[in-house]
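TICKET #2291
ISSUE: user wants both folds in one file
ATTACHMENT 1:
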Amino acid sequence: MKVFLTGASGFVGSAILKKLVSAGHQVTGLIQDKEYKEKIKSAGGTPVVGDLLVPGPWKEAVPGHDAVISVSSPYKITDKLSKDEAKRRANTHTEMVKNLLNAARGSNVKAVILTYHVTAFGSQGESWVSEVMPVKPVGLAIPIAEGYWDMEKAARKANVPTIEVFPGWTYGPGSWFSEYLVAGLTNGMPVLVGPGLNYKSLIHIDDLAEGYRLILEKMPVGERYCLVDSNPVRQKEFANFVARELGRPEPQPVDYTFFAKQYGEVLAETLDSSCRVSNNKARRELGFMPQWDSFRNGIPDVLGRMGILPEKKEFPKAAGF
């Protein structure tokens, strides 16, 4: 299958690119900076340089593909964002996606696969979250999902079928996991906002890429899928586990207001949100079977890939739930 992939040089995009190429698909990777052309080529893809806000070769390329996968992101977790800035980026991201949808209008593109995040369903406390819930983005989901209904309307107007993907907190080398959590624990920076009893739904980068492959090949037009592992975990338990793997003391919780002032209200809201997500639909309809079905085996794998050899020390174990 011929696939047009946005965000192809990023953390998630590059993993999807490699997965799809290894499965025999032809992938055109959209990049904004020509310095990433060799990265795309070395992974087996065909690079196209362009900006979704500006008409260019990318726009002419889209109709020649069987499917489009949008995974470009308007933020990094290390960005210090206010709510106003998050909404400004949401407006920009929405326009980019609308342009992508319009480029697929009247073509043979079977579907545009749109990417959001599980926090687009809002903070749901102890409740289980699934695909049937309404979109009410919090924190870092605001830049990618605040314009959800505008993107939905644009797809209908262009008569372009879509599939919606809501990944969990995707961890792997080079992600928020290394740039924020591992770096924070290593350098003694705050990583635990509030008491840490809120839920996080995680997924290993390899499993996420496999989820996109399944969606592409099964092409369930009009559906939504949450791609997460089967073990949601409380923020405190997860942070404590990673700290122990790194041979570091368990992190101390910090006040929400203090954290928001230091690192931005959007990141504070993201970390404080609770999203306990089920992957039942993806398992049932896609045959999605995560290889790393728990952070307890996924995190050691990622730390190994990062070249980190944990220095084992005895620290109090975090309570289970």
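ATTACHMENT 2:
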Amino acid sequence: MINEIITQIQTAPATVTENPKFKVREHWDAPIEYQGQLVLHHLRLCSYGTGIPHYFSELAEAIINRWFGVLEAVKSPLIQFGREHLLNELRAEAGTLTDEEAAAEYERFVHFPDHMQQVSVFEGFAGYGGASFGLRRSGIPHVVIGMSEFDPFASQLLAQNFPNIHNWGDITKINAEELPDFDLFTGGFPCQPFSSAGMQLGVEDPYGRGTLIYHILRIVQAKHPQYLLLENVKGLTQKKFADTFENIKNILRDLGYGELAYAVLNSKDYGIPQNRERLWMFARLGGLPVGFDIVPPKEPLLRRFGDLLDDNPPQELYLSQAQIAHLKEKHHIDSFIVEEPLCFDVYNKKIKRDAICITITQPEHNSLRVIEVPGPDGLEVVRKMSIDEQFRFMGFENGELNYAGQSYSQMSKRAGNGWDVNLVGKLLRHIFAQL
């Protein structure tokens, strides 16, 4: 059965990157057994196994994403295929385990999504649809029944990438009683009032962004979704905003959601070489199970800054030698000569020698530059980061997000405000494996 499905899919058009940098294209025509092994490695990694090379996980994710994108029918047979092989491996590795013991061990580590009923989702403050892209990566069976986004450029992106999903617009104007029922509310409510890069005025924010969380709670009170996944900058946990954060937790308790689980997670701990710390919050109606832990197991970081850069960036991104000289003088940098591509942290005036990108931010912060290895002429090479690069650092593959013809400035704004979809997928899978 699985061989027949794979054969059908191998003849379908590719839906993911063909950039050889990611070493994916060469595997489309690989033997079925080899592709199956990649998928098996991926499934084991999702099962919190250790020691599985991240390289194999990336290839498997790309193959799975391609399969799922071409034939929805592949999901159950593929998971069944992985389950059977994983059970066989558990038996072989353990040696002394009976079939029943192996099955119990398997269930302890794996909660495959076909055990679940389909989760209906409403995505608030949708941006480019970070929750929806993350859900696709998680493997959780789901349907997005609506989104809320009022920014006209972000709304245009949603219309291009999710043409069949209704955008309810400004969350402050939504009549919650008119919304269809849903199981999961997701939302990264505006972070500027709590961010170190913003004014840090919290609920006193003059634009009203600090109070938008209460419109989430208003909708939650009316619809009582089973689950909530919220995101913000880690600044919300600072003492300065303690009253606001405690108020949010108290309201959720009063609405029947028990204790809010929350943690600051960093993209660099889950496979993306970006230092992006964000506060993630999760709650379940009726409370979370005993022993619930929102933090997924960390992974070794096997990719470096240069691994996510373009092979041929647009020439207009490059600084002139005069501009480079001015940058060096302004920020007291002796040299931009490097042996591998690195990130220059403009705000902190230093080259990131650890080969990790600083946090992708909105373009007005002008916070980073890409330093390339000098060419044959030995001259220093510094440039801006391309749009494709910014979205790779946000977990996307080439061509996965349709930019809808929007400008560099607008797409940079989306990336700076968005969710790392790689982390979201792993977080959601980790969460739902415990429910």
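RESOLUTION: both attachments delivered.
EXTRA DETAIL ON ATTACHMENT 2: The longest strand covers residues 277-284.
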